[in-house]
């Protein structure tokens, strides 16, 4: 037997469900066998068919006839990638020497973020503490954290929060726009500085049977406060857009359980299912969503975490060097 496990590190608090797809060494390695293996694995393990109202059998009827023993690798990749992209799932992708398939929901949404505008108009004198770009804007503290792939240390957070406390800021803006995810433990570090007691931040379920709606009992995920380190002073406003995904989306989901946090901007890009992966007989790799994730209010956030206050970056403001979303957050804290 041979197996290859592909799973993103999702932190100890997450329900990890990384799985291995096993197959015999003598299993056929032809286009039809590889298609069947991929389709069967999703049929047995994928968790979001019911939520997305997808009939996986219909996908088989549509795509299986397109594959034959004469199908080339390029053709097979295109067929499989097209089928998987119709799941509308950024955690589902096929990786091969030819290409990596990917679903990008943010391409159908306005960017609502302009890094150059932000730097020129607001952050010319900003500090870079580790990977945390931070500034004090009048009576408001500001942090931009561009990727949860970048490590964040407790001392870095301590340094920034202590700076805000010394300057008596009224509240703090945490800007995660364009944060495509990474290690969710970094998001948990931030969330733990916003709470004073054990807090329910989201709920997860795993598939546990052959039917697409066979799900284990839901498990509430809780976070404890970081009592040995300083907390963010005042109200916290989180800025989001459609390019916030995966661990970034989980971070935004977690804020929904914290009363003093307001999310401003656009709905995140989603990604509520913890990714797991498997290897096909031909050596290609495939990731898929292996869990369901829901907000504390009960809604599945696979399609995105909605903001509490929806604000768009207007073209007029952008021309004037003004970040509409950031200004709305500043005004909200100063109310």
Describe the structure.
There is one protein chain. With 335 residues, this protein is of the alpha/beta class. It has a domain at 107-193 and 229-269 and 304-334: 2-enoyl-CoA Hydratase, Chain A, domain 1, CATH 3.90.226. It contains nine helices and 13 strands. The strands form three sheets. Strands 2-3-4-5-8-9-13 form a seven-stranded mixed β-sheet. Strands 1-11-10 form a three-stranded antiparallel β-sheet. Strands 7-6-12 form a three-stranded antiparallel β-sheet. Helix 6 (184-192) packs parallel to helix 7. It is elongated, with a radius of gyration of 22 Å. Mean pLDDT is 91; it is low at 1-19.
What labels would you give this structure?
335 residues, alpha/beta, 2-enoyl-CoA Hydratase, Chain A, domain 1, 7-stranded mixed sheet, 3-stranded antiparallel sheet, 9 helices, elongated, disordered N terminus
């Amino acid at each position: 037997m041979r197996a290859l496990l592909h799973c993103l590190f999702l932190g100890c608090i997450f329900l990890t469900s990384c799985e291995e797809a096993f197959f015999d060494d003598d299993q056929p390695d032809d286009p039809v066998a590889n298609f069947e293996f991929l389709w069967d694995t999703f049929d047995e393990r994928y968790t979001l068919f019911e939520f997305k109202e997808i009939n996986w059998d219909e996908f088989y009827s549509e795509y299986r006839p397109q594959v034959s023993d004469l199908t080339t690798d390029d053709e097979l990749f295109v067929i499989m990638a097209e089928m998987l992209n119709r799941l509308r799932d950024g955690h589902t992708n096929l990786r091969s020497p030819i290409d990596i398939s990917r679903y990008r929901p943010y391409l159908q949404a306005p960017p609502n973020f302009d890094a150059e505008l932000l730097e020129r108009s607001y952050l010319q004198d900003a500090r870079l503490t580790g990977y945390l770009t931070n500034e004090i804007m009048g009576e408001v503290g500001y942090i931009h954290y561009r990727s949860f792939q970048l490590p964040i240390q407790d001392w870095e957070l301590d340094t920034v929060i202590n700076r805000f406390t010394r300057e008596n800021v009224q509240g703090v803006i945490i800007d995660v726009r364009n944060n495509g995810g990474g290690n969710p433990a970094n998001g948990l570090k931030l969330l733990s500085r916003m709470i004073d007691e054990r807090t329910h931040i989201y709920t997860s379920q795993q598939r546990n049977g052959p039917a697409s709606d066979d799900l284990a009992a839901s498990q509430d995920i809780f976070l404890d406060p970081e009592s040995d380190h300083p907390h963010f002073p005042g109200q916290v406003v989180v800025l989001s857009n459609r390019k916030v995904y995966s661990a970034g989306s989980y971070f935004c989901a977690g804020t929904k359980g914290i009363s003093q946090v307001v999310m401003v901007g656009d709905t995140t890009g989603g990604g509520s299912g913890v990714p797991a992966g498997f290897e096909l007989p031909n050596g290609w790799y495939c990731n898929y969503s292996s869990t369901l994730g829901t907000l504390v209010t009960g809604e599945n956030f696979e399609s995105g975490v909605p903001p509490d206050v929806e604000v768009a970056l207007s073209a007029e403001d952008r021309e004037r060097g003004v970040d509409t979303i950031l200004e709305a957050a500043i005004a909200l804290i100063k109310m």
